[in-house]
Amino acid sequence: MDKSTLLLSVDFTAAEKLGSIHDGLDGRPVVDWSKGERPDSLAGVKYALVWEFDNDLFDQMPDLEVIFSAGAGVDKVLANPALPKGIPIVRFVDASLTTRMSEWICMQCLNHLRQLRHYQNAQAQSVWDDAPQPQASEVTVGIMGMGVLGQDAGRKLKALGFNVIGWSRTQKNIDGIECYDETRLDEFLSQSHYLVGLLPLTEGTTGIFNREVFSKLARHPVLPSPIFINGGRGKSQVETDIAACLEDGTLGGVSLDVFESEPLSADSPLWHFENAHLYPHVAANSDVIALGAYVDAQIIRYEAGEGLENLVDLKLGY
Q: Considering the entire predicted model, what is its pTM?
């Protein structure tokens, strides 16, 4: 039986160096919109895998039945003013994406714990200069966003010895991690030396990481702190506040993989802070082969009447 066609509007660029999405799609035919393929008609194409796409794309797909997001986030899809009503949206959930994000978060927490930038600067100046090195158990990492990514990162940070607490909009019960809900945000912040952002982008989380939040974080007696680490969504942070808080010492450092506008402008003051670790949205690049296999499996489930997994709740926005 021939497989149904998938429309693809994703620019994988560097990710394709590790493989092709076609390797995961197992022979499923593709209309690659991102590479300029423009058939006379998209009638009969029921599925779309998207990230960056034209706002009128879905208007050209009269038979669209399912939209797949190429990442864990779906804000780019939901922001489309022409998003058709009643079409289910599926987000990408895969062990490879989860693992990559946890790797990056653990790396950032360790970088700040072991004061990597201090030693890089000392080496560049040929200076032998040791700094205090507390154990991970003396640092509390607070994770905002305790979904799949947050829970995995929390478990791995605990394995490294960090004290980990979690915050989410509604109360969650997670073995080994004390969790707080939206009514106890200040209590959560007051204990967090390092604040990790893994929140989805919604109306309620836009701009949530701001001076008011940073000023409530805990200060470590020895280490530069507090530290803000964001691997979630760029528009959840207020970059003018981040720059000002780095300048006046409200923040002791940051690690940012996402930004309000990407790519980050060359004239952003964030580039020039010694205690800022900046990355070009690479913390959890999708494994394109795993993404292809995931979408292929979801379509097979859907066409067999078994239902879709990891559906987006449009009311919540994630």
A: 0.90
